[in-house]
């Protein structure tokens, strides 16, 4: 922790991307110790560190801190088996022998040859490292020391670590966002067909109300004439016209809702594919600076809203908006003076809304 610029508060990136294998092993082991469990299963935690650090971990952690716990240690480091209370030797996935170190030695299992072989392998590795040593290695070492010293100076200069938060936009939505959504879901043909079906459907709905009003007025006039003995009542024509209007409204509503939801579904699919296409071609540095959870949130929560909530909400907006416009037009045809309070109410609603 002393090597980190902010000690235990240092951000190590998604899944410890900025840590080495040994640092990951030590941090994982420390997290396991914090749980204070009764049984610990350690799957070769000493393989990712050098021999000095491995010996320190074994002495201070496994033999010291966990001396009162049950510890099952899986390891290839044969130098530590002398201190084990029970040893299980495995070969190709099968148990070969079990017992204490003395019992296994008495049974004829030659650990010394394994230890010598292990030491010879380590000696060869050390010799290779010495042979590879060059001015380039010294240059890397100098750079590492410089980076560590820079981190130390940074830790002294800053007392807290800054985390880049996700950029979020609040308030009104730009009109370009709506236009991009429409373009993602509808081409010129589908957009024209959807707008036409919306206008025709809403116009027929209001025309049916006007026709019903005129029908009622004609019925009143016919009743007056019939009462005076000067009129005939023939409702077949009115019933036929009104029935045709209702059937046409039903068909246009189906077309209107169908084209609208097809446009929304296509927009959702195209936006998802566009995000996925760009994500697959983004540099690796993007994943280092952005947690996986943040990326998955865009593909789950946000896409879920676009799939489930946005089509229904946008269709309700379509219905309500065209209903208001149609009602204002009908009222204006009946009495033009009613436009003035209607405009005042619309302005008041707009002010309250925003």
Automatic annotation (TrEMBL):
<feature type="transmembrane region" description="Helical">
    <location>
        <begin position="324"/>
        <end position="352"/>
    </location>
</feature>
<keyword id="KW-1133">Transmembrane helix</keyword>
<dbReference type="InterPro" id="IPR050173">
    <property type="entry name" value="ABC_transporter_C-like"/>
</dbReference>
<comment type="similarity">
    <text>Belongs to the ABC transporter superfamily. ABCC family. Conjugate transporter (TC 3.A.1.208) subfamily.</text>
</comment>
<dbReference type="GO" id="GO:0016887">
    <property type="term" value="F:ATP hydrolysis activity"/>
</dbReference>
<dbReference type="InterPro" id="IPR036640">
    <property type="entry name" value="ABC1_TM_sf"/>
</dbReference>
<keyword id="KW-0067">ATP-binding</keyword>
<dbReference type="Pfam" id="PF00664">
    <property type="entry name" value="ABC_membrane"/>
</dbReference>
<dbReference type="Pfam" id="PF00005">
    <property type="entry name" value="ABC_tran"/>
</dbReference>
<keyword id="KW-0547">Nucleotide-binding</keyword>
<dbReference type="GO" id="GO:0140359">
    <property type="term" value="F:ABC-type transporter activity"/>
</dbReference>
<dbReference type="GO" id="GO:0005524">
    <property type="term" value="F:ATP binding"/>
</dbReference>
<keyword id="KW-0812">Transmembrane</keyword>
<protein>
    <recommendedName>
        <fullName>ABC transmembrane type-1 domain-containing protein</fullName>
    </recommendedName>
</protein>
<keyword id="KW-0813">Transport</keyword>
<dbReference type="InterPro" id="IPR011527">
    <property type="entry name" value="ABC1_TM_dom"/>
</dbReference>
<feature type="domain" description="ABC transmembrane type-1">
    <location>
        <begin position="239"/>
        <end position="354"/>
    </location>
</feature>
<dbReference type="GO" id="GO:0016020">
    <property type="term" value="C:membrane"/>
</dbReference>
<dbReference type="InterPro" id="IPR027417">
    <property type="entry name" value="P-loop_NTPase"/>
</dbReference>
<dbReference type="InterPro" id="IPR003439">
    <property type="entry name" value="ABC_transporter-like_ATP-bd"/>
</dbReference>
<keyword id="KW-0472">Membrane</keyword>
<feature type="transmembrane region" description="Helical">
    <location>
        <begin position="239"/>
        <end position="263"/>
    </location>
</feature>
């Amino acid at each position: 922790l002393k090597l980190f610029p902010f000690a235990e508060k240092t951000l190590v990136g998604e899944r410890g991307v900025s840590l080495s294998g040994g640092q990951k092993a030590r941090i994982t082991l420390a997290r396991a110790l914090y749980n204070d469990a009764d049984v610990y299963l350690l799957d070769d935690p000493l393989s990712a560190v050098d021999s000095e650090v491995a010996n320190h971990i074994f002495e201070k952690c496994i033999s010291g801190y966990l001396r009162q716990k049950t510890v099952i240690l899986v390891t290839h480091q044969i130098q530590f088996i002398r201190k084990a209370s029970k040893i299980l030797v495995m070969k190709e996935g099968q148990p070969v022998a079990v017992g204490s170190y003395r019992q296994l030695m008495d049974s004829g299992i030659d650990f010394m040859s394994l230890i010598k072989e292990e030491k010879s392998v380590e000696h060869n590795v050390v010799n290779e490292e010495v042979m590879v040593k060059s001015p380039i290695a010294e240059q890397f070492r100098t750079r590492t020391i410089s980076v560590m010293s820079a981190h130390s100076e940074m830790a002294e200069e800053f007392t807290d670590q800054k985390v880049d938060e996700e950029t979020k936009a609040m308030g009104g939505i730009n009109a370009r966002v709506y236009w991009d959504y429409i373009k993602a879901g509808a081409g010129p043909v589908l957009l024209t067909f959807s707008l036409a079906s919306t206008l025709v459907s809403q116009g027929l709905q209001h025309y049916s109300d006007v026709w019903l009003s005129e029908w009622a007025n004609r019925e009143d006039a016919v009743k007056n004439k019939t009462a005076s003995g000067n009129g005939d009542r023939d409702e077949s024509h009115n019933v036929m016209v009104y029935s045709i209007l209702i059937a046409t409204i039903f068909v246009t509503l189906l077309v209107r809702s169908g084209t609208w939801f097809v446009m929304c579904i296509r927009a959702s699919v195209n936006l998802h594919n566009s995000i996925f296409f760009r994500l697959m071609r983004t540099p690796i540095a993007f994943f280092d600076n952005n947690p996986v959870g943040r990326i998955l949130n865009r593909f789950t929560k946000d896409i879920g809203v676009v799939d489930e909530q946005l089509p229904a909400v946008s269709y309700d907006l379509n219905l309500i908006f065209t209903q208001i416009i149609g009602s204002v037009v009908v009222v204006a045809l009946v009495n033009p003076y009613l436009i003035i309070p209607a405009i005042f109410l619309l302005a008041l609603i707009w002010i309250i809304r925003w």
